[in-house]
C-alpha cells in the first residue's frame, strides 16, 4: 500500500484537507471512542500547528497534529493521533509516529516533544524513545499517561 505523507501548517491547510481531517477525527474520537469533547479547539489554523496526514488514494487515513512547532522555548506537542479503523493492523501507526518524529527532528527549533498517550500504548511510544512523564490519569474516561521525548 502506497501512502503519501503530507505536512501542512495550520495557516496553509486548504478547506477540503481540513474537512477530511476533521471528518476522520470525528469518526474516531467522537463516534468510535465516544469521547464527547470539543475537538475543534481553535488550534488547527495556527501557523505553528502542523497537520501530518497519511493519504491513500487521496483519502486521509492516518493523522497527527503537532503544536508549538518552531517554538524554541516550548516543547512541541503531538496529539490527535489516529488511524482510520478500516486501515488498522497494517503498521500505519508506526509509520505515522516515525514520520511525525522525523519531521520534528528536522526542525532546528524543536528540542523536545510531549504527548498524552492512551496508557495501553505506552510500550508502542517507548519504541520511538518516549519516556513516561506522569502518573496515569483519566481523559474522557480513557486511561492516559503523559510521555516526553528529547530530540
Automatic annotation (TrEMBL):
GO MF terms held by the record: glucosamine 6-phosphate N-acetyltransferase activity
Domain of life assignment: Bacteria
Entries under PROSITE patterns matching the protein: GNAT
UniProt domain N-acetyltransferase: residue ranges: 8-151
Pfam families: Acetyltransf_10 (PF13673)
Name of this protein: ElaA protein
Protein species of origin: Rosenbergiella nectarea
Amino acid at each position: 500500500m502506497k501512502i503519501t505523507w503530507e505536512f501542512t501548517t495550520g495557516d496553509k491547510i486548504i478547506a477540503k484537507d481540513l474537512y477530511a481531517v476533521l471528518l476522520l477525527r470525528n469518526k474516531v474520537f467522537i463516534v468510535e471512542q465516544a469521547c464527547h469533547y470539543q475537538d475543534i479547539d481553535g488550534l488547527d489554523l495556527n501557523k505553528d500547528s502542523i497537520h501530518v496526514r497519511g493519504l491513500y488514494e487521496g483519502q486521509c487515513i492516518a493523522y497527527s497534529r503537532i503544536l508549538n512547532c518552531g517554538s524554541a522555548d516550548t516543547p512541541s506537542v503531538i496529539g490527535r493521533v489516529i488511524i482510520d479503523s478500516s486501515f488498522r493492523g497494517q503498521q500505519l501507526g508506526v509509520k505515522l509516529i516515525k514520520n511525525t518524529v522525523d519531521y520534528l527532528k528536522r526542525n532546528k527549533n524543536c528540542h523536545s516533544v510531549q504527548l498524552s498517550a492512551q496508557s495501553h500504548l505506552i510500550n508502542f511510544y517507548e519504541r520511538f524513545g518516549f519516556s513516561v512523564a506522569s502518573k496515569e490519569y483519566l481523559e474522557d474516561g480513557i486511561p492516559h499517561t503523559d510521555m516526553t521525548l528529547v530530540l
